[in-house]
Amino acid sequence: VLLADLTNGVIMMDYIDNSITCREFILNLVKKEQDSSDKILIDLSNRIGKIIGKLHKNQIIHGDLTTSN
To answer: Is 43 in the active site?
Structure first.
């Protein structure tokens, strides 16, 4: 995050080259059918939940939370 304008509800973020969405990560992992896939997905879900919990605790609500954004 480069800038957060709370008055106008604007967040300016840096662009990350060669990044993938959470959805793409999950789909790639499922295609590989590795034995560790379940553990990785559980860990990922827990980490995302903790991050969203921190946002909500600080009165930040993501209006369109999906694995694609």
So the answer is: no
45's tokens: 């879900």
**Max Cα distance, the chain (Å):** 48
Taking the whole predicted model, whether its pTM rises above 0.70 is answered as no
Residue 2: CB partners within 8 Å, gap ≥ 6? 12, 13, 14
Q: Which amino acid is at 66?
A: T
4 — phi, psi (to 5°)? -125, 110
Residue type present at position 19:
S
Backbone torsions φ then ψ of 51, nearest 5 degrees: -65, -45
In a structure prediction context, what are the per-residue pLDDT tens digits for the chain, which is 69 residues long? 899 999 999 999 999 999 999 999 999 998 887 788 889 999 999 999 999 899 899 988 877 777 776
Tokens of 6: 């709370």
